[in-house]
From TrEMBL:
Protein name: NADP-dependent succinic semialdehyde dehydrogenase
Family named by the database record: Belongs to the aldehyde dehydrogenase family.
Start and end residues of each Aldehyde dehydrogenase domain: 3-457
Annotated GO MF terms: aldehyde dehydrogenase [NAD(P)+] activity; succinate-semialdehyde dehydrogenase (NAD+) activity
Keyword Cell division part of the UniProt annotation: no
Amino acid sequence: MPIATVNPANGETLKTYEAMGEEEIERRLQLAEATFRTYRSSALTDRGRLLLQAAHLLDEDRENIARTMTTEMGKPVEQARAEAAKCARAMRWYAGHAEELLADEVPADSDVRDSGASRVRVRYRPLGPVLAVMPWNFPLWQVIRFAAPALMAGNVGLLKHASNVPQTALYLEDLFHRAGFTEGCFQTLLIGSGAVADVLRDERVKAATLTGSEPAGRAVASVAGAMVKKTVLELGGSDPYVVMPSADLDRAARVAVTARVQNNGQSCIAAKRFIVHTDVYDAFAERFVAGMRALTVGDPMATDTDVGPLSTERGRADLEELVDDARRAGAQVLCGGHRPEGPGWYYLPTVLAGVTREMRIHREEAFGPVATLYRADDLDEAVLIANDTPFGLSSNVWTRDETETDRFVRDLEAGSVYVNGMTASHPAFPFGGVKRSGYGRELSGHGIREFCNITTVWQGA
């Protein structure tokens, strides 16, 4: 895939870039290693000051970078503005909380005495240069939620961003440099996916984090495993959205529309499978389908657009194949189900019912504005359908029954359970999945410690 900005609203190639050669990659690896030797010893207060400055600059740049993101990958510009604002808030959160999150831990006095020590503490030390392989769908947020905690912990970052968002990738390097971080603290590598393995194998790179597809995660994990390097993977999701009879149906249906089509439906944590108790299935389906039909599909630069184009032509084709396969196998198309006329990689908001286990869309992630409706006879069946997926990123449950809530929290196979609300990431809460959705956690204290050497310091008398 060429490294280029291609506007998905019209298919126009706006800017192309040459991939970095071996000499430039080597220069940047040397710089990362050299910078880490000094940056690792910098004071947390100094790191926090620099991160706050980056947040300030991002606020100033919000309009321009929002329009860049929309141009590169098609998200509605209002959502792009919100993404930039969220990134600035996350940087401020880590600048303000890193000291407590990385503070030395002291075991119980009885355990210290039992070990024969006079003093024991657990210290969090940085690992070194970390390679971040990031996707295009949230081109700022996916990077910042790695970079903010990694930089505050004393690591340095090497970003290999998706090839269709090169301007956003270069902006991020420039942002940290303008904020005052030493040049080697955060660098963008303009390289294709074929060059990732060699970078990861380099001894100077100590760990890697990837957000993206399952095949990409397997590739990075296999190389890192061979080199015995730490990885954090956030991969695909096919999140369930369960609606029980006690739910507020109007609110559940309204939120369901947003949960499915946020970011043009191209979100790992978007609700994708809507599992509704039979007693309220018809009422929910009527409200949900009406909400999906009412969405405005169009120019992502327009402030009244709800759904813009998919990011790539190939992405739309993949989505069409899933819908067509389900239709051929007997699924009912309640709305949408096809591309609109005209230029750009648009696909109409779609709801499918009558989905069975034999259909590809039942087991594969639909990365676009396509929802599947399932009918469940009771709570047990709802749990079975929700867990009948290779993924386990997040989940959504709508019920006002505490017993049902406890059961879903206990039995749903997912990294998060959101009750009476839609999944959303927040810097204070750990984020990640189970099963084929990956491993490890981003955000919160768990995220900042993922790329730390957790060091036991034992001192005798």
